[in-house]
Amino acid sequence: MNSSVQSNVIEKKMNIPYALPLVGEEEIAEVVASLTSNWLSRGPKTMEFEGLFAKYVQSPHALGLNSCTAGLHLAQLALGIGAGDEVITTPYTFVSTANTIIQCGAKPVFVDIDPVTMNINPNLLEQAITPRTKAIIPVHFAGYPCDMDPILDIARRHNLKVIEDAAHAVHTQYRGRMVGSIGDITCFSFYATKNLTTGEGGMITLNDPELADRIRVMSLHGMSKNAWNRYSDKGSWFYEVEYAGFKYNMTDIQAALGITQLRRLVNMQETREAYAKIYNEAFAHNDTLILPHDSAEHRHAWHLYVIRLKEHMVNITRSEMIELLKEAGIGTSVHFIPVPQHPYYRRLGYRLEDYPECMAAYEAEISLPLYPSMSEEEIRYVIEQVNRITAENRK
Ligand SMILES: *Cc1c(COP(=O)(O)O)cnc(C)c1O
Predict the structure, then answer these.
(1) Are residue 250 and residue 383 in the same domain, yes or no?
(2) Domain containing 164 — which CATH number?
(3) Are 86 and 133 in contact (CB under 8 A)?
(4) CATH number, position 296
(5) Domain span at residue 184?
(6) Which string of b and e fits 134-168 if b means at least 16 CB within 10 Å?
(7) Residue 10 covered by a domain
(8) What is the pairing mode between strands 185-189 and 161-165?
(9) pLDDT (tens digit, 9 = 90+) per residue, 278-335?
(10) Alpha-carbon distance 167 to 139, whole Å?
(11) Measured in whole angstroms, how far is the alpha carbon of residue 61 from the centre of its chain?
């Protein structure tokens, strides 16, 4: 970077990390209570959290897990996806979406994104379907819903399952329907940076009670149902193993956090929404930026606030802009390094150039800080610095 793009002296420099969880007294009290309750592993708190979460997303069944990644893995295994099968997903996602397809022995098939929504483009889906295709995994990027009606319609016509990666989409609605109640199986993440956190954690929601049962058994060593209350006074020492299952269960310590976070979720979401609106209005006249898409038809969960730099209008690259923001004390991130770009996937023969919209989005994208524990003053500071940097480096 040459010195002419270095920032001028910033008055009142602030320090704003890219992401911080909102953990308060309530969370601490609930976790301490769970630690002194003698139930540390999966127990009553997990079941309570599952019930509350299922109700929240309007789904009949919810299963607490140790991650969203575990959920994606189990969902595919429970649907019988394995060697020789293909699963369609977006290249513009966190790598675990695709890794779990590989872990099942199947082949990921990437379908490019719609440049407006940055979600998988339903118009390109059908041409990617082969006789080996078993499922589609749409990812609700940044918390804005994928266009589910055409996706479900194509899936129905080709007899495919739809597993939603809803890691960004707690609170998202698609045409008035809660994400979590739409596809065959939905997988949520409660990782530390997500809108609702349990530190590490995840949840599966689904309609089909038999499938729910199978996933439950597979998530805890494949042990039969009798094992669930093995340590209670109703339980017995006897259990049977139905599958070579996994150790993917949620713990009551995580669930204690999750219950409190769920209680304050609507509040936290209102703050995200208000801040996103402030960003949108403040950047509306900055023509060097592409702003995130939104629509009154759906409810955006604003997990990420994603801007794209129009590099033809400025003298700096996206990466240089990230450095200038860092000098101004602002932490940012890039969502995502596209899956086909990672060395493992390149060795398998995938090429980012085959997904031109994904490549263009990746090269221009910056995720700005957006979380409920930020102050409005901090949001204003981010706006001021972004606008200053793009103005100083305009062509
Ligand atoms: C965070 C994330 C995941 C993984 O979630 P974990 O709970 O950490 O396993 C999966 N997909 C997307 C799109 C994510 O952002």
Answers:
(1) no
(2) 3.40.640.10
(3) yes
(4) 3.90.1150.10
(5) 25-261
(6) bbbbbbbbbbbbbbbeebbebbeeeebbbbbbbbb
(7) no
(8) parallel
(9) 999 999 999 999 999 999 999 999 999 999 999 999 999 999 999 999 999 999 999 9
(10) 8
(11) 20
Burial classification of residue 291, based on how many CB atoms lie within 10 Å of its CB (0-12 exposed, 13-18 middle, 19 or more buried): middle
Contact 383, 375 (CB under 8 A): no
Pocket test of ligand 1: the residue of 18, 72, 94, 306 to mutate, having most ligand atoms within 8 Å of its CB, is 94
Q: Measure 167 CA to ligand 1 centroid, in angstroms.
A: 5
Residue 46 tokens read as: 């997990």
List pLDDT tens digits, range 352-386. 999 999 999 999 999 999 999 999 999 999 999 99
Q: Is residue 97 lining ligand 1, measured as CB closer than 6 Å?
A: yes
Does residue 191's CB lie within 6 angstroms of at least one atom of ligand 1?
A: yes
Give 96-146 pLDDT, tens digit per residue: 999 999 999 999 999 999 999 999 999 999 999 999 999 999 999 999 999
Pairwise CA distance, residues 395 & 392, whole Å:
9
